[in-house]
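Our collaborator T.R. sent over the components below with a one-line note: 'Predict the complex.' Nothing else. No constraints on interfaces, no templates requested, no preferences about which chain binds where. So this is a plain run: every listed entity goes in together, and whatever single assembly comes back becomes the starting point for the next discussion.
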Amino acid sequence: MLYFILKRIAIAIPTILALIVLSFTLMHYAPGSPFTGERPLPPEILTNLEAKYGLDRPFPQQVARYVWNIVTEFDFGPSYSYKDRTVNEIIAQGFPVTLTYGSLAFIVSIMVGATLGIVAAIHRTTWLDSLTVGITVGAQVLPNFIMAPILVLVFTLWLGWLPGGGWQGGQWPYLVMPIIALSTSFMASIARITRSSMIETLNSDFILTARSKGLPFHEVVIRHALKPSMLPVISYLGPTFVGLITGSVVIDIYFSTGGIGQHFVNAAINRDYPLIMGVTILTGILTVVFNLIVDILYVWIDPRIQY
Amino acid sequence: MITARLQSESLSEPGPGRSLWQDARRRIRQNPVAIVSFSILVLVGVFALFGPIFSGWSSEDINWNVLGNVETAGRPALDSGHYFGTDQLGRDLFVRTAHGVRVSLMVGIIGALIAIVVGTLYGTIAGYVGGRVDNLMMRTVDVIMSIPYMFVLIILLVMFGQSIVLLFVGIGLVSWLDMARIVRGQTLSIKNREFVESAIVIGVPPALIILRHILPNLVGIVIVYATLLIPNMIIFESFISFLGLGIQEPNTSLGVLISEGASQMQYGVLWQLGFPLFFFIVIQFGFFFLGDGIRDALDPKDRH
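Returned assembly:
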């Protein structure tokens, strides 16, 4: 087990380094610079600016310095478009927002999705199953950028129950629609995965044994069927995480929640290289770490896995 | 007499045995959901290709009479010629929706084709060669998969300008990963079968074995996965276009139209959101059920 964890970490670290170097290289060779504006700057000033931000040094040196600053101090450098703030400050401001509604959406997708899937599997071939399958199929074709306008239309414009956007320190009326919009399609996928793996588990021999020794059905489901049928769901958590991070861009823009996605798109439009790289690398590191945890969790839960 | 009976039986039977494909075709014909989905998708395709012929407007014409008064004058109506109404700039939404559906379908199909070609090649090579090469190739896939690709694509689009070509490149870059994994798994199980072993024994070169013996056995799973991939690619493109980074004016796609409609919906012009959204959802459902039907037809055991 310890060997497995160490091996996974040994893969994760080069992945993160590769991500940092890759995004830096991409930025370095991209056409245009933050200093190319409407009016061209005099060459002397351009040289001074480049010297200030270290852009005049040879490329390998720039990469090394950038990686070193991140690894030792977790410092992404100054922002090019916000004069008075560093990338770290901007991220520190937006990240808690994204984390709040992101983790809530994550929990909602898993809890609601798994519950729906289990209910459908237990009541297979009844109307309850058909209803659940119908809901999940419907929800699966409604990605966040479709859900967001529909929700605003219904709950803000027609019913007037919820505010159409904003954050206000994360009060619950401002949280409801971002969470629903973000979690719908993942909830549907999780429900489908849970349902089919639960049906498969319920058809296996050990469930038959448990039933024939006289255990009541709900006991069998909770004590025997739940754990093996959640395994495929666990392996789906990685893609869900990436999807939620990506979806947060739409949520931030549509609901003006002020999370990290909004900064990312603004930074991309302003060619604010350090900020773009900071956000990309941060989400990349989070994804790699999250996948690492999921892998370990999977092996820990399922002793049949060889590693 | 026995021979006569055998002959008459063999006459009534269409052949010595039915192939997987004949079986699949028969099963899918008996699946009403798949047939209905397929017919609807064909209708949507016809609308996208030939719809504009039946309208007096082009996708870039601006109806100046409507401008400034879209809420009442730009309503969907038969007598004004704007069957789906107009958008905020007074352009005919019927033609623009047809145009958008065409672009979205094209993106979906081309994206799926890229995924099929790259993913299948990569997956068969990794699976067939095996060993250290396989390990290295699949680790690379793992690494690319753990990168939040949407961010990388947005960076690419901003850095190198927003063009359809780059959008395809970006979609192609990420879409083949799942395909490569699925195909590799399938190749691993095929390559140990007897017919591959005998091909190796009689000295068929590896490239030819992949081409003649492995690829034909992958067709089923690739088709099923591709049908499910097309709607994903459409979502992907719409997502990028919704952020304003994908398809650019005067060109349009369902994502662009939905985004425009969504930004106008508080002004009582709901048809601007409704029609593109309707087509988006119909296309999504269509491919979903068609893919489901094809999977059932090709693998009748797997019915969960």
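Summary for T.R.: Residues 8-13 of chain B have pLDDT under 50 and may be disordered.
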